[in-house]
Amino acid sequence: MRKYLNKPIEELVRELTAGLVRLRRGYVDSAEALLHIIDTDHDYPQEFVVFRLTGYRPASTTGQLLKGRSLRSDLLQLVLDLCDSFALKTTEYPEPVYHIPAMAKRFQVSTKTIQRWMRGGLVARKLVFPDGKRRLAVLESSIESFVRGRTKSIRRSVKFSQMTPNQRADIIRRARRMAHFSHRPLSQIARRLAERTGRAVETIRYTIRRHDDEHPDTAIFPSLAQQLKDEEKLSVYQGFLRGIPVPMLADTYRRTRGSIYRIVNEVRAQRLLRQPISCMYNPQFDLPNADEMILSGAGDGQNGGATDKAPVRAPDGLPPYLRALYEVPLLDAKTEHDLFRRYNYLKHKADRLREQIDLNHVRAGDLKRIESLLLQANMVKNRIIRANLRLVVSIAKRHLRGPMTLFELISDGNVSLMRAVEKFDYSRGHRFSTYASWAIMRNFARSVPRERHQLDRFATGHEEVLDIASSLRVYDPTRSSQSELRESIDVMLSRLSPTERSILVDHYGLNEEGRAKTLDQLGRSLGMSKERVRQIEIKALKKLRVILRPQRADLLT
Length: 557
Description:
Helices cover 61% and strands 3% of the residues. By secondary structure, the protein is mostly helical. It is globular, with a radius of gyration of 30 Å.
């Protein structure tokens, strides 16, 4: 089911599709009748819409108004979803029924033009034809209602679609010559030919693509008919993340800009589908007001959910970077409960949205929502772990015996702490510190004896110890998973412009080579001054801080 613009309509559709099958055709016809009277510039009460669709007048009124434009879009989708919920046959209508190709032939327009009309208000149904196949179809009465009042625009569409064979041949000849001499992508050639011929860019592009499909041996853009390999798609995606402009990627891979965006979204979707998302489910997650109850400011008090106790003094003998952990306030019971509930609910929502991903029709907005939810979940996880890092140090000090150093024990304990956050069931009412202590000590019981016998194999150099210890101060929970950390960084960088993204990636060594460039080197490669590069970097970092501020993240500090 596609996402609806109005939540009440989405809930109503669920009720109607779960109701009696014999009533659903009536709901479909009522929805079309309502569409004919909807004015996109007006607002309509929710109760009015329910009554016009079902004939039932709600006993109580919510007073909620639905905007006409969004309501029209939702009603068009409601018709399709209702038809999808049962087998509605063409023979049940005593009038002509046209599937999309037949209607395109009748009006002498392309199927894309018909699809544009459907988005503009032409009511389409999903009907079962005599051959047993379910197709998009339009009734004769629906066509008459749509055409009424749109005669001029429809004539204009027909006029632009009725190209003579000589006109098509001329467009193909020009496009072939331009592609041969200029090596430009389809999008640029279509735009230039549209300017010269006075036709729509989409018409030119459609004509060329149709020619290439019908004549693969003499195709103007043979590469467009060939599917990119998975390795090539991954290269496109990585280039996009590195800040390479989409027009440059389109030129490199001989693709349209739209296909580049589709490839990027496809790879993003595949990575999301492969990424494991597990949560401790709670029945509260499926309540109608779950968002308001769980996500509205839980644990966001001024004191960060800290207890009222005085700060705990750090144990003697710890270096400054470990003593700093004791400056992070502990979480009180309520805040801890709210944070764990929020953390698991965010992952639950992301997983539910991920189930709706269709690799054949990937929506960038859906991917963005899933990535945003996972990023928020990582922020919450980061906060929980930072508040419990001193617990790892405390337990590690008690196990400090034999060949293992304190820093090795802390590193091992951090892994156990992160796993404990994933497995902790907050709904049982226990404190997380009890569960985490048990998990850390159980891991030490297994790992410490093993380390004693394998000291040479697992020896940690002095420099690495310093890295582990220093990382605790700016600890990030995703550190344990390089791919998860990479995904979080990529999601944040995707909110920046290509130039900003390229500067941050290269300056901080976030590229595949891991080599950082100076501002002077970046300025020479980008053709701008060192000072200008510095200004763009500062602006990009400010953007990231604004993005992360609602989650009170300190990844950039």
